[in-house]
Each structure stands twice: as structure tokens, then as C-alpha cells.
Amino acid sequence: MNIPIAYEDNWLLVADKPSGLLVMPTPKREKRTLNDILNKDLEERKITYRLHPCHRLDRETSGLIIYAKGKSVQKKMMDVFKERKVKKTYIAFVQGAMPAERGQIQLPLEGLSALTSYRVLEKRKDFSVLEVTPLTGRTNQIRIHLKYMAHPVVGETKYAFRKDFLLRAKRLCLHAQKLEFIHPKTGKLLKLTADLPNGLKGFLDKHL
User: Which of 58, 79, 126, 195 is catalytic?
Assistant: First the structure.
């Protein structure tokens, strides 16, 4: 699989993950993961370092994910995440019309506070296109928060029942579009963007 690379330097690599691909194996020990694909490519090119993910993306979510070239850089980058100095922006297609043009969703997850900000970019007949920014980093935060608002992500099957909604999609319509952070080694501000994948563009074209 040809994984698009959005950014690369001596310390970091930022991949544009396709939907349907795990980042790391689960206890089921899946062999085909983004980690495996990227590191096998390094082995074939006889490059000795290994790539380590610095955060998570769900299997069903596409978009930008940061990898570190070596464990020491991974620790530095993960510290940047812990300090909440990474701004992540997602595009989500959600069922129905949101109650406001912009807002925040506050609902504790995993026993911890969780806050998500959203802005409506476009309203379509049966769904809305949102720009979503998680202000905390809980597992599946965006998906759970949007379900809590009764506007789950189109294509959601884990936190909503498909039978409850007329609008269907072949994949979860959630894409990690932008990353903004201070590079842990150079101190420079990085602003990275990944275009909507063809599957999501096709969905928009089909549902005008």
C-alpha cells in the first residue's frame, strides 16, 4: 500500500493514513497495520531506525498521524501532546443539522474531563459538514461527543445504529485534516494539511 507522506525531516514523519487501516496491532495481533507498512518499507530500503507513532487515530478515521524516528524523539513529541500544545483539526460529516453554527461539547470520558469544539462549515440536505477540534485527547472523543449531541458521524457503527439513520456511507466520515505544533527538535511551528480523501469527496458529490 502506498501511504502518502505529508511531511518528513530528520526526526519526524507525518503520514496520511487511509480509513480502514489500524495504526498498531490490537491483542488480535493483526499483521497489516500502518506501523508494519511503514517500517517494512524502511527495512526494504535498509534504513536502521524504526518509526514510532506519537498519538492515535481510529481504524475508521483517515488523515494525519505523526511518527517519530526513534524512541527518544517519540518521547519528546509525546510530551508536546501531554502539554496540549498540538492543535488537531478534523472534518466530520454528521447526521442532521447541528443546533448552533458553532459550539463546544463537554462530556467526561474515561472518568476525565473532555472538551470538543466544533464549527459548521456547510449544511446539506441530510447532514452537516463540521470542522472539529478536540481540546482534550480522550479515546474516540469526537465520535462519542457527536453521538451525545444526537448528531453522530455519518457511517458510525460503533456508537450509533445504522438503522436509526437514512443516510449511509461506506466508511466513517471523519478525517484528521490539520496538525499544528512546535517541532520538538527545531522549535519551528509546523502547519500541516491533508486533503479530503477521494471517498469523502465522492460522498459530497453524491449528496449535493
Answer: 58
The mean per-residue pLDDT over the stretch 16-34 comes to 90
Question: Is 195 labeled as catalytic in the residue annotation?
Answer: no
Which residues does 77 contact at the CB level (< 8 Å), separation at least 6?
A: 12, 54, 66, 68, 184
Backbone phi, then psi, for 78, in 5-degree steps? -70, -30
Q: 161-205 pLDDT, tens per residue?
A: 888 888 999 999 999 999 999 999 999 999 999 999 999 999 999
CA distances (Å), origin 11, targets 50, 71, 72: 11, 10, 10
- What pLDDT, in 10s, does the model give residues 129-148? 999 999 999 999 999 999 99
